[in-house]
Amino acid sequence: MFNALVVEKDEESGKTSAAVKQITVDDLPEAEVLVSVEYSTVNYKDGLCIGPGGGLVRKYPHVPGIDFAGTVEESRDDRYKPGDKVVLTGWRVGEAHWGGLPRRRGSGPTGWSRCPRGSTRGKRWPWAPRA
What we know:
Mean pLDDT: 80
CATH superfamily: Medium-chain alcohol dehydrogenases, catalytic domain
Number of helices: 1
Order of helices and strands: EEEHEEEE
CATH class: Alpha Beta
Helix content: under 10%
Strand content: 25-35%
Distance between the termini: 11 Å
Number of strands: 7
CATH topology: Quinone Oxidoreductase, Chain A, domain 1
Number of domains: 1
């Protein structure tokens, strides 16, 4: 199990709520690549997703986070192999697709880039301690 910022919507009232929850890989959307997320950010679009009414999100439960960087754990895509460092920003991540705020994340490889060699590492987001 690992932590994720999960947004849920009450269908009756239309109100959204967000909480850090424990989830498993089985809870992630089906994906070609599984990444151990090391870094992500929260920005204005994430605030819209978390706030009253859910803003840009159409399908719940949802995980915000408009970008992420991490290490490939598993891949069914020949372009990526375990150990590859990757980054994803844009491509409606955190809006139409689950974002970068779970500790692990599945995804298709559209929009991904390998991290340049020699890239430095910053601080991890607080609810994702290194396993």
